[in-house]
Amino acid sequence: MSAVEPEMRALLLGAIPALRAFAFSLTRDVDRSDDLVQETLVRAWTKADSFQRGTNLTAWLFTILRNLFYSELRKRRREVEDADGAQAARLSVLPAQEAHLEFDAFRTALSGLPSNQREALILVGAQNFTYEEAAAICGVAVGTMKSRVSRARMRLVADLGMGGPDDIGSDAATRAALGQP
To answer: Above 50 in pLDDT, residue 1?
Structure first.
């Protein structure tokens, strides 16, 4: 491509005034149009091997520029301007380390259950089998399966130091910091 490079460079440089005029007609902003022309030239240079020699280079460049403009326009429509940071201030993420510690505690408590209770809880709670399906898988009566799941849940609540359903999820301090009840 070394013989083509000077020729391509000259053609690209010659097309700049027409590209700038076209970009300005799309953007109505000198700075944005210059950025668009620059991106077009970079894209054209990196994709020069896909240009069909003997065809209209200016048309090819205009197509690249137009596609870049509309891609940028679509991207900007999805963005939300937040110059003063008001939107960002309302966003919050729970600290990851807390969830990691809670998961480790849960995993430890789950592994401490008797194997028949752990199996029952995983089949019903994690795999979403009905009590009837889980009972058939384990070869026990439905009542036995319900009893195992109930005992497993109660033991997990006790082992994890939970007082009830309000203890599931964020702790009270985190909820208060997030402005939640």
So the answer is: no
